[in-house]
Structure formats: structure tokens, C-alpha cells
């Protein structure tokens, strides 16, 4: 069983439990469920911002604890002030030490798009994402069939959410492409064995149709990489660990952005 299989198996149990605890009706009673969302594309293309999607991540299966000493409100507002185009907040508890409450907190103190970073496998999680205050959901091609991607993306669009599809290779990209997506993210990390290479982004860039925003995800640790990725056509850059591994992630992002 790969780590991804374990994460998905656990997620199925979590979603079943969440459905019992909180009904669809209760989710739709959240004030966030009835709000207008921010446009991911607009913030990515805003020349006053950096294109960076700055992630709040305490722990990961590949690195263990990255930083469990910082607060989501301080870090995410610092990220936004440093020029983030969007925020990414992990809500998986078991493998990433995230909490749904982290997303609610990030939403309540920021006015830029927020991505719910989790393993979406069920329509319930899409409704839940909106009710927690997310603007963007992530769909991971490695764990979803094309039919599932279609269903989840259509539901997300009907709620005004933006959809980011994550792929790691050409086969995933070609089978998963769907008109209901807003952005395609190339994950430079192989979720099956955790190896990383930014080359993955350069290789797949030319295969991503022009109508989708292009995002490069993971293992970005240097401003020069962002300059190169921009030349290759990328609009967004998802960065977690490079900032989170520092005692002050917001300061780490300011220092990074100063070198862009
Ligand atoms: O910490 P990094 O290497 O900068 O990576 C951030 C982000 O891309 C990574 O956390 C991620 C990409 N896809 C995911 C899917 C689930 C959980 C996490 C991820």
C-alpha cells in the first residue's frame, strides 16, 4: 500500500464520520456558504501580486513535523501582506496536522483566495470546503477517475468555487483535462515515492492547454526557479516548506519576494 492509498483509505473513513456529525443542511447554514468567492485567476494575474500560493503546512508524510509552533492567523496574514496571490491551507489532520478550523481562521482574517488543501474524494467535501470559507478546491488526478473529476468540478463550479487540478505526469494530464477546471497544477513531488524534480513542470508546461492557468507545485526553494517557471509560462507557484520550515514563515516569504 502506498502512502497515497493510506491517505485515501483514511479519508474515506473521515468523510463517512463527518457526514454523520454534520448534515448537508448544517453545512449550507454556514454564513460562508452564501458568500461570493474570490477569483483565483484574477489574483494570479494581478501584477501587484507575486503569483505565489503560500501554504500553511505544519507536517507532511515526507518531512515529518515542519513547524508546529506558529499560528495560522499570523502566518497567513503575513503571507498575504508579502504579496501572495492565494493562500493554501491543509485541512487533513492525520497526515498533515491540519484542521478544518485552520481554514476557517485563514478565511476570517484574509481577503484573498484560499485553497482548501486536502484529498477530495466526495461531493460532501466540496460543499464543506465552501462552508469553511474556501475559494478554491484541489482535485488530485492520481486519486480520481475522469468521471469523478467531472462530477466534483461541476459541483464546485456551481457553488462558485475555483478548481485546481493536480497532475504529476502526461498520462494523468491527458486523461483528466476537463472544461470545468480553472487551473492545472504540476506537482513536482511524486506522491507515490516523494521524489521531487522541478523538471516535471518544464516537461508538462507545453502540454497544458492555454485556457488554463498553469501552476507549479512543490520543491520551490529559490527565487531564480520562479523566474524560470515564469519564462516557461507558469502563472502560479505553490510554496509550503521553504517558508514554513523557518521560525517566522511570513518573514521568510518577505525575504524571498524581495529577491524576485
Ligand atoms: O512544501 P512544498 O514542497 O513547497 O510543497 C507545497 C505543496 O505543493 C505540497 O504541500 C502539495 C502539493 N500537492 C499536495 C497534495 C496534498 C498535500 C500536499 C500537497
From TrEMBL:
<keyword id="KW-0456">Lyase</keyword>
<dbReference type="Pfam" id="PF00218">
    <property type="entry name" value="IGPS"/>
</dbReference>
<dbReference type="GO" id="GO:0000162">
    <property type="term" value="P:L-tryptophan biosynthetic process"/>
</dbReference>
<dbReference type="InterPro" id="IPR045186">
    <property type="entry name" value="Indole-3-glycerol_P_synth"/>
</dbReference>
<comment type="pathway">
    <text>Amino-acid biosynthesis; L-tryptophan biosynthesis; L-tryptophan from chorismate: step 4/5.</text>
</comment>
<keyword id="KW-0822">Tryptophan biosynthesis</keyword>
<dbReference type="InterPro" id="IPR013785">
    <property type="entry name" value="Aldolase_TIM"/>
</dbReference>
<feature type="domain" description="Indole-3-glycerol phosphate synthase">
    <location>
        <begin position="4"/>
        <end position="255"/>
    </location>
</feature>
<keyword id="KW-0210">Decarboxylase</keyword>
<dbReference type="InterPro" id="IPR001468">
    <property type="entry name" value="Indole-3-GlycerolPSynthase_CS"/>
</dbReference>
<dbReference type="GO" id="GO:0004640">
    <property type="term" value="F:phosphoribosylanthranilate isomerase activity"/>
</dbReference>
<keyword id="KW-0028">Amino-acid biosynthesis</keyword>
<protein>
    <recommendedName>
        <fullName>Indole-3-glycerol phosphate synthase</fullName>
        <ecNumber>4.1.1.48</ecNumber>
    </recommendedName>
</protein>
<dbReference type="InterPro" id="IPR013798">
    <property type="entry name" value="Indole-3-glycerol_P_synth_dom"/>
</dbReference>
<dbReference type="InterPro" id="IPR011060">
    <property type="entry name" value="RibuloseP-bd_barrel"/>
</dbReference>
<comment type="similarity">
    <text>Belongs to the TrpC family.</text>
</comment>
<keyword id="KW-0057">Aromatic amino acid biosynthesis</keyword>
<dbReference type="GO" id="GO:0004425">
    <property type="term" value="F:indole-3-glycerol-phosphate synthase activity"/>
</dbReference>
